[in-house]
Design a protein that fits this description.
The chain is an alpha/beta fold and 188 residues long. The protein has one domain: Rossmann fold (3-Layer(aba) Sandwich). Helix content is 39%, strand content 27%. The protein has 7 helices and 8 strands. Strand 6, helix 5 and strand 7 form a beta-alpha-beta unit.
């Protein structure tokens, strides 16, 4: 894949500001009040947004990544997009979707997707990171299943403690954007 990360980032930033970023009075999933809201699904569920997210995150993965995973629902389109891009790059990486609650029937599984070898290295994806607790639930479920999580990658870091939470658990963290970048671009 030729590296157009700068152009892809700019296109994705434009989409986030146009479709995902809103100002107002909001209550976040963490319970925190906020004067702005980012609905990443407004971009990741658009064809062009999914493609950009897939390409950018694929380029951020370590070479030894065995799978990508994320907590349903925000990460679902992201893990799918990255997995599809990986197939086009001849380095297919399976996607796993982590349920918040175990399935109430059948295998009662928390994790949907291919079964990996024990100790498989998994990168967790998240659309918007605030406190970091959503992705940590995915990390716990994956660890309980015998996988090793090395990294969390998000579309946007709200700069509200998520990075510090991940680092305190020995996980590296990267985001494509910070909220500061989104807000600065929205003011232009």
């Amino acid at each position: 894949m030729e590296n157009n990360n700068s152009a892809w980032r700019q296109q994705l930033l434009n989409l986030l500001v146009e479709y995902a970023y809103q100002e107002g009075d909001f209550t976040l999933s963490s319970g925190q009040k906020s004067s702005f809201y980012l609905n990443g699904k407004q971009v990741t569920l658009r064809a062009e947004g999914a493609l950009l997210v897939g390409k950018l995150i694929f380029s951020m993965l370590s070479d030894d990544t065995d799978a990508i995973a994320g907590l349903t629902l925000g990460a679902d389109p992201m893990v799918s997009a990255v997995s599809v891009v990986s197939a086009y790059e001849n380095k297919p990486i399976p996607a796993l979707i982590i349920r918040k609650e175990a399935k109430g029937h059948g295998t009662k599984a928390y994790i949907e997707g291919p079964t990996l070898k024990q100790g498989a290295l998994v990168t967790v994806l998240e659309d918007v990171v605030t406190t970091g607790k959503s992705a940590m639930l995915a990390v716990e479920r994956l660890t309980d299943a015998g996988y090793k999580v090395n990294q969390v990658i998000s579309l946007v870091d709200r700069l509200s403690g998520g990075r510090e939470l991940y680092q305190s658990h020995g996980l590296s963290f990267a985001s494509i954007f910070t909220i500061d970048e989104i807000q600065a671009h929205s003011r232009k």
